[in-house]
Amino acid sequence: MDVTAIDAFSGSQLLQAEPDASSFPSGGMRTTFEARGYTVWDTTSPMFIQEGPHGTSVLYIPSVFISYNGDALDEKTVLLRSTSQIAKSACELLSLIEPVPVGAQPKTSHVFTTLGTEQEYFLIDRSLYSLRPDLKHTGRTLIGNLPPKHQQMEDHYFGRIPSKVLATMSEAELELFRLGVPVKTRHNEVAPQQFELAPIFEEASLAVDHNLLTMDVLSKVAHKNKLKVLFHEKPFKGVNGSGKHCNWSMSTDRGENLLDPTVKPETNYRFLLVLVAILHAVHQHGALLRTSIASSSNEHRLGAQEAPPVILSCFLGEHLTEVLDSIEEGRPIRNFSVPEIQTIKLGGTALDVKVASLPTISRDLTDRNRTSPFAFTGNKFEFRAVGSKQSPAFPVTILNAAVASALQDVTQALRAQMGEKPYPSDADKVAVIKKFIASTKPIRFEGDGYSDAWIQEAEKRGLPNIKTCPDAFAQLLTPEHSTMLTKLGIFTQSELQARHLILNERYAKDLAAEAATLRTLLASQILPSAFEYRGSLASTVQLLNGIEGEANSPELSALKALTPVVKELQDSIADLDHVLHHLHTLSDDPCEEARYAGEYILGSMNKARVVADKIELLLSDKYYPIPRYSELLWF
């Protein structure tokens, strides 16, 4: 039997294809009838094959997506631009501080940004998920009260992983290994039904691709195991939200981590110059980093239950703080190398109770700060504020851009300090390091990011406290940020304006969809159930009234408690109708729609939820029409 190919394609078709770009958000860069766009294979990210339906195989080609005019329509194009620019800026600095003989090759010819993305997520029963319209349409529960037991016992993180979850994790890891995704870590998270998965560090653009692939594989495997994975940053009110902690660093082509402080960071001038450049980046463009994490879903998480606050600050820890302070003040560093600081003696205590089987262990020079949005964690920075649902591409792009610009500032300052000398002396390096230590001091914070005192202190330091998404989106177009992004060639001005409009439009549409879903849920399920229960109570009261007279007080009391709340719910539904109608009457200005949605639609939803949650507490399981938190949060 002869076997022939049904179709064939050339190698050039792997490199470039022409999909329809007319239905893709363009932010006004093109009109709807202009349909042509191009995908181009990102050759730094390998192709892969996944199993398709009915035993077929599907070839996936990681690609950038650009318009007919070359504008970036995707997140990968700008990410690759940013990694190229930060490599250029870093190499320029390193070539200045790493002298080489005339005619010899520079010690460092390329710098990579590395990334490790910790992915948090919830897993719930798929059959219960299908009975929650709010979860299905918005990814989060729009109504619902906490069960009597949730995370207040603090017993989930180190608890047993449920067998069906462990099976899902194991199968997902196997699938990811087959696809070349180097998954390493899995564990429970703090909230019930919340878990985490993390890979080994990779080059940043590949790590982003692998993170998105991880989310896809988790969804598919969970479905096979009759579970549903939730990536929304706050699917359940009152318990921990989920983040995507982006552990970011830079590495040379020789495999050297530029953020490794080594044994004596106080004399590791390369490390210190890179460190102060990053602090300078966050100080200058913290508001832009705030933009990169802003979304309708992540706003519910930031500043609540272990998520960092919206004020961008850097945590360095006691040791590095002392190093920088000693340089700024021109004094010797306090000794952090004594044995009792480096180790913990489990085999003996002050009470002389010895456990010989327990060894002496080493401990890090500094503790961690879970309330810091941008924390140094040994040899990398952890950008903890990124949302679990979003792609890491945009936050990492903005971080790369800010650091690339800051590296250029440090290089320029170093050139000015060294004057006519071919290379800077150690004294020149220290002078520049000292200058940036002083200028970036406002961004460094070691305390509790949740405290009211920090909000007041941050205001005194002049740090931006951008509370709403529309205000965060506006930072893309402010001169200090837009000039930096366009000067580096990471965005064009038209691309920035387009992204600003797209972010606002998406925000308004997300909230409108949530409000419409909530309105439908209340009107079609909660309110009829309340009516039914109220009718049952009224019939019981009438029946018992004829038998017992006024002795039917329990049922009558329940009826009297329910009736005003039902009226409140009707008013809440009417208010949702009003704000949704008004949103649709606004002009086609996404910025105006986003501000209205954030102020009025979100407020109306919050009020309606309060009423709906009151009714949940008054209705028995027989009448309450959807699964409660007590069912969703526990298998």
UniProtKB/TrEMBL annotation:
PANTHER family: GLUTAMINE SYNTHETASE (PTHR42974), TYPE-3 GLUTAMINE SYNTHETASE (PTHR42974:SF1). This is GS catalytic domain-containing protein. InterPro entries: Gln-synt_C, Gln_synth/guanido_kin_cat_dom, Gln_synth_cat_dom, Gln_synth_gly_rich_site, GS_Type-3, GSIII_N. Residues 75-526 form the GS catalytic domain. It holds the Pfam family Gln-synt_C-ter. GO terms for molecular function: glutamine synthetase activity. Belongs to the glutamine synthetase family. The lineage of its organism: Eukaryota, Fungi, Fungi incertae sedis, Mucoromycota, Mortierellomycotina. Gene3D superfamilies: 1.20.120.1560, Glutamine synthetase/guanido kinase, catalytic domain.
